[in-house]
Amino acid sequence: MIQRQNLKKKIAKTTGLIILLAGFLLITSPAAIAQGTTAEKKSQSIFEKMAAGAGLAAQKVYGVETGKITPSVDFATGLLKILNTLLTFIGIIFFLFLLYAGYIWMMARGAEEEVNRAKKMIQEIITGFIIILVAKIFTIFILTQLGQVVS
Predict the structure, then answer these.
(1) I need a surface site. Which of 11, 46, 101, 145 has the fewest CB within 10 A?
(2) Which pairs with CB-CB distance under 8 Å and at least 24 residues apart come from 75-82?
């Protein structure tokens, strides 16, 4: 019973610390700093502030200012960005599977069958991750070479 109470206290402290850290990061974020509190911005109407915020969001998301034509991107560069995003996402999934396999191993508590299952999962995950990493490197190499040939 005492251990359970200590665990609840630790969880509460950790949660509070995470919330405090998230609040600090939100307050000191570049967007919050960039907006500032000048007298000019205080005199703006709520609609002007909303329009400025929407323009800033569009600039951050699309990388260009609103009302301007976006520059054309060649095929190899666009495909490279898409594949990098996809392969990065797959890498994150592999990391989560690795955490799950580690959890299984820790919860096995010496049960040989569960330990072997976790070890096999970890070997398969690392093998898959290596394959994905090689595919990413190979793809980057091919597309950069293709982009140089086309240019």
Answers:
(1) 46
(2) 75/150, 76/143, 76/144, 76/146, 76/147, 76/150, 77/147, 79/143, 80/139, 80/140, 80/143, 80/144, 80/147
Shared domain check, 81 and 145: yes
Helices (H) and strands (E) in the chain, counts: 6, 0
Tell me: do 59 and 7 sit in the same domain.
no
Domain count, the chain: 3
Task: Using CA atoms of 58, 59, 61, 63 in order, give the dihedral in degrees to the nearest 10.
Answer: 140
Asked if 86 and 127 sit in the same domain, the reply is: yes
In the listed set 25, 56, 71, which residue is the last one of a domain according to the structure? 71
Q: Which domain holds residue 3?
A: 1-35
